[in-house]
Each structure stands twice: as C-alpha cells, then as structure tokens.
Specification:
Distance between the termini: 40 Å
Largest sheet: 3 strands, antiparallel
Number of strands: 3
Number of domains: 2
CATH class of the largest domain: Mainly Alpha
Shape: elongated
Structural class: mainly alpha
Radius of gyration: 19 Å
Length: 119
Amino acid sequence: MQVVVKKPHIRMEGEISAELIKFLKEKYRDVEVIENEDEELVEITQSDWYRNIRHQISPGENMAIYRKLHGLSQETLGKRIGKFSRQNISNMERGHRPISKAVAKRMAELFDVSVEKFL
C-alpha cells in the first residue's frame, strides 16, 4: 500500500494503519491511497504518455506551463527573467516571438529544469 499527500509532499509505503490514513485525510484532505501495486505513482516525465507528447509541445507552451505551475503572471515572469513586458512574454508563449538562448537559460534556472524545454 502507498499513501501520498500532495502538499506538503509526504509518501509512505508498506503497512499503513487506518488511523494514520484517517488522520492524514483530516489534516491534509488531498490524500491518495493506492492499495493495488499496479497503480504505483510514476514521475510524469518518465511516463510513456509524456515521452510521446513532449515533442508536440512548443517551447512557448512549455514556458506558459511552467509559469502557471509556479503561480507567476506574465508580468512577474517578465521581471524575473529580465526587463520583458507582459506582451513580450505573451508573444513568446504563443510562438509569435522566438525565445532567445539567454532567456531560455534564465527560465531554466528559475524553474530548475533543462534549458532544452524552452528552445
């Protein structure tokens, strides 16, 4: 059995008491209990689905995905990676403006991912 709490990230495996599961559900609400070994959680970037679809995602779409995952507005992202206006960020996300290597590098550092995601 596995129990996974999304935020804060807690993962337990093995024999887990019903009392502990009840406590976690009351305390954190977003708790997933996996009783079947075949339903083991997999890091999304290691899944077949992700490997197949990642070639269909443009650098601008990746930019928008990571910006939203980190709760940043276009304006805030523009300030964090340089002096870019909201409109410039919007144009990069929609593919109307290319993402330079320098900007890709700053975003990779900001989001702690590979620079290739934005090139």
